[in-house]
Amino acid sequence: MRGLDLHLEPDPAGPEHGRRAGLEAALRSAVRTGRLAPDARLPSSRALSADLGVARGTVTQAYEQLVAEGYLTARHGSGTRVAALPTWSPHTADRAEGGPPHRWSLEPGQPDVAAFPRAAWLTSTRRVLAEAPHEAFGYGDARGRPELRRALASYLGRVRGVVTSPEQVVVCAGYSQALSVLARVLADAGIDRLAFENPSFHRHRAIAAACGLATPGVPVDADGIVVERITAPAVVVTPAHQFPSGVTLHAERRAALADWAVRTDGLVVEDDYDGEFRYDRQPVGAL
Asked: pTM score, two decimals?
């Protein structure tokens, strides 16, 4: 087990039984807070005692105590591991009261992850790792690897109808970071308001507000955002599937929103969070 790091802060002072209590408390806290994940393997008693400068028996007794309490498990040949502690959620509470297990999840933002193409992903990853130049593992261009930006520009044109170039593509660590970057750019440019659909995802409004922007709401009806109610110079929309209502922006509203942007020199931020997922219509291009 050498080389397995375990960050603990037991109290080194006091007699040996005090050190054992401190080690137990540190391990117990690490399991409770999730720093030590279920099934995580712990160092051997010999390795941990050497790292902490305590007697091996102290570590052994601490492990045994936590096994007895249900925080750890110990099996011959498998070492000492973190036990899977019971967790509570409204769903598990329903099942505990006799309700049937959920057959399908209708939570928004939860695609069928069982359909992830594992084999194709693994094949591509192996090929890229074998062919990638050494500099690909460094920081590189802050906008993202040029190969990725070229692929995205091609994909956006082919699938989403977006005319763009790799130089116009910036790769972010998800939509939230992209929105944060854009909100700071707008604030620096003197724009003080970024409108959002009402209702919309509250965390995205909070991101813009944290950057100093006001976030007025714009009503949404069965055809999507009511364009004539936009009063801010920039607006965030979810035209493919409005969140959380799910409606698709009507063709007349799409044209009206584009006209609003041209007429007012306004900025439209399209949150195309699941434009690839379609159930009842032909593909809708990016706004």
From this structure: 0.64
